Give the backbone structure.
Amino acid sequence: MGITYFENERIFKLDTKNTSYVIGIVDKEGFVGHAYYGKKLGEDALAYLMRIYESFGTPETNARDRLSFYDAFPMEYPTHGIGDFRESAIRVEDANGHFANKLTYRSHEIFKGKKKLAGLPATWCEKDEDCETLELTLEDKEAKLAVVLSYSVFNDVDAVVRHARVINESDKTVYVTKAMSASFDIDNNEFDKIVLYGSWARERYIDRTPVSYGIQMSRSMRGEGGHQEHAFTALLEKNADQNKGEVYGMDLIYSGNFRTLQERNQFDNIRMMTGINPDDFKWELTAGADFQTPEAVLVYSNEGIGGMSRCFHDLYRNHLIRGYYRDKKRPILINNWEATYFNFDTEKLLAIARQAAPLGIEMLVMDDGWFGNRFDDNRALGDWEVNEEKLQGGLKHLVDEVNKLGLKFGIWFEPEMISPESKLYEEHPDWAFTVPGRVPGLARNQLVLDISREEVADYIFEKMAKVLHSANIEYVKWDMNRPLADIASAALPKERQGEIFHRYVLGVYRMQERLITEFPNLLLENCSGGGARFDAGMLYYSPQIWCSDDTDAIERLTIQEGTALIYPLSAMGAHVSDCPNHTVGRTTPFATRGAVALAGTFGYELDITKISEDDRNQIPQQTAMYHKYNDLVRTGDYYRMASYRENHYYDAYMVVSKDKKEALATYVCVKRRPNPRSRGLKFLGLDPEKTYRIEGEDRTYLGSTLMNAGIYIEEPWGDFQAKLFHIVEA
Ligand code: GLA
């Protein structure tokens, strides 16, 4: 790992263990271009990669064709309005309304360690020796603008993270209308692209298609990432699969409106880009002020999609997630949402806790409906005071009783929202987003609080903190159940309304930072109508995120496959729920529901007092399995053997410990075939030289046998059957 500047060549080389990212400076004007990203390069003269002698040359050698140079050169941070007609990374309007910018090299600095991003989530390193940073300052001499591009590499992960900071060095106010986090250009090599798409209860489905000409974009305008599209994208060779081929992954550490795109152009280059969505974005920069973009993550793997996933997992586990629970087993929780919805009281919750405790469940989470007049989802958001009609004896009494049973206690909040029917709305109708003169659209009968305003965010935070201080509460589920629309802020002048979306996200981050600072041992789980806020930004504050409101074990195979494409299993909120499943009406074996939830944080979401004796009797064994396997699942390397999404019959994945001494493979036969022979399954990621035993079998196998020849699994009778294989070094 290391960053080197080769002065003679004017080349920066950013090395991770297995990859290199190369940036070059060309022409006497100092254009900064992208030279290479991929498998690691040695110490060599690399300036030729800038291809400046091709076609039109640079302005220094061919001033009459300057625009042709701009439109072909792989600018490291392409600007708007001067002749690079591809997607630009930055657009700044000056005091006269002009918006053409030219950025060239000014200076650079290379240092050990990594600076924090003010107010934004970002990767970090424990010790300065663990990572290195390049700050490359570009300038627009005429517009008096500087842009600092920051890149960091880590010694243990093949990832490059980068962001930009735009500084107004003029004496006039300017407006940033676009400032992307990362852009890089690459020659098309018959690439496919992967994006994630979905809907409520169908989050993060994988979509792989060829990259076609023009721009293909994923985006959000919802004020959060949303269920529908995702900031992540990957470029991959046509023949790349889970285990082989070149893959370039790009993700954004951000929880608001994003734009991620691929643009294939006339020369068959592809420009990849990600950042805050420039639509409805306009940021005022007074003289001397700066704007900092969120951080983007780039991962290159020549070990296929699986190699890319494992790299994202390591980066997010080791350099993004923080806090008390980062490296700890999470308590097995039981959540009352699917058990009771709004219909509960102290006695009902205690009845659940009493049954749960002896079976190995470790925490009761009280979901929506405990506050104000919240008898259904039409009212009371914002009134964060305990409803003692429901919780007779008060919250402390309930929590104490739950604690006496040996369970921890957790609680649900939806802090960013306000119901028109609430005391808070009566007192502060102007705190909700509304465009003056227009009736705002409702979703789930609720409006969104303008938490870009500090006084609004502080008020809600203090209400939450009061509840959390009032009893021994050890977990918070932070929910967000509608997107933003009808955005206008009473606190900002008209020229600054374009700041609201981003300021809103900064408000969420500020509140969550306060929460985990004031309650350092709290386990925070983010959630948004299921999994609409499963993003890298949220992972900085909460080590786990609710994956989806769809808890059906079979639907979860696809949702968890897409989620695990980037996010570690330690972060995936996954529960065993009751059947027929509340979202799809499907009935699956209790054991299968347990096996699938084991690939996440693991917990229950059902009325334990009502499920069958048979199901209940399986819980002690499931909770014991969680304790047996969770260290491995949380910290190991993830490999995907088969995808039900692709083959329509079965799903198979495994987690291998870093030392390769232990692995857990999960096989789910979704649909039994008629008249089948046994199915061959080849394990992945083991040590070919090691001798292993599959728990429950008498014999041993060489790792090479298990990986190259595999084993044969008898097809189970009936659909939806799961089988776990615990593989340990003999
Ligand atoms: C969202 C969440 C659910 C539950 C409900 C409560 O839909 O995803 O898990 O908390 O809100 O209203």
Observations:
- Residues 613-635 form the longest helix (23 residues).
- The longest strand covers residues 174-187.
- The mean pLDDT is 97.
- The CA atoms of residues 439 and 486 lie 9 Å apart.
